[in-house]
Amino acid sequence: MLVINRYKCGYCGACVGVCPATALELVETWLEVDDSCVGCGICTKICPLGALELTEEVEA
Amino acid sequence: MKCDMVVVGAGPAGSMAAKTAADEGLDVVLLEKRQEIGDPVRCAEGVSKAALAKMVEPDPSWIAAEVKGARIYAPDGTSFVMTEDRAGSEVGYVLERKVFDRMLAMKAAEAGAKVMVKTRALGLLEENGVPTGITALHIGEKMEIEAPLIIGADGVESKVGRWAGIDTVLKPQDIEVGAQFLVQDVKIDGEYCEFFLGNEIAPGGYIWAFPKGKNLANLGIGIQGSRSDPGMALRLLQRFLKEHMPQAKILEMMAGGVPVSGPIESTTSDGVMLVGDAARQSDPITGGGIINAMRTGVMAGEVAAELVPQGDLSREALKIYEDRWRDTIGKRIGRNYSVKELFVTLTDSDLNGLVHSLGGEDVANLELKNLLKLLAKQNPRLLWKLRHLIR
Question: Which of B44, B2, B37, B49 is nearest to B108 (CA)?
């Protein structure tokens, strides 16, 4: 699953622009990810501040 | 709530669209999801003076600095200056976007548009598959805004296009991702916007220093998304700052993503037009988006004023907007996309060679085409890639 480090996030919206699943939404300074995330990892790679990470564990 | 046109996003594109349509008598609602228009900034704030002056009367309240031109540095530190004083009045401004964006929204308001802040579009209202407005969250409360025409001016993170079935997803190679510091340093020369090229400095992009007044500058980086790894933009910027301006104080920090995809297949759908970064209309070489956003905003506003009274807002009818922007801005960003695709393949030695050979050139009047010819002359292996650009 996609983990957002909110202490790093610069709420720029670049990740939203590249997300092929429309799973991300930027609400002012708050980045949201919904369950349509396919775990492709594109957003983690392009994040200028390194605020996004894919982890192995699945949501309960 | 009902209106003729609802604009999602109060950046330069949205505000110009709203102002233009309201000036022509349309009943316009302009939404901004943030509670403060223009803040936080995600922009290097450089803009061409002449192009801007065609659209709005320059005002010192939103101009942070005026520069004589650009100084471009090769990876080895060699530089050349591009002044525009002989070619015309293309001398640049560095803006104060927080003030500028609010001023443009105010102009839309003065023209009669209803501005709503802290109001986020949630999705489209539809009837028989045709959009009839949007649903929104206004200070946390759900509401509906009925309108036969929706303008998506919602920036790099645009959703309006996707809701309407327009493919706006940016591939990693078609986005420049960046970070920026507002820095204070006595070493900052306020006369030129500076650009630093190099694959080590900024892969597939560049570092910029745009002056914002005495000893102040926006120091930022953009790197190609496909060559980025997590947090790379920030790390490279921090390294550059440490090496070039070790005494600099950081007064502000921001991040951003800039579309460099060139023209996308479609920017319209039934009842929907996209403008500015939402339509991926920023320049693929420089990443500059303000002027194109304002111009396409005006075009969309004009088309809205023509079509809304007639009642036909189908995709076929909105083709007027597609044609207008593709014939103008579209041609330029299409060509610049090809140039970008080439530039990102240049090695540091190519870039050094190019800048060295400019030593004897009169770069004041140097056009892109001549720059490319020079590049091909120097690097015959690039001629094949360049052939359609220098014809």
Answer: B37
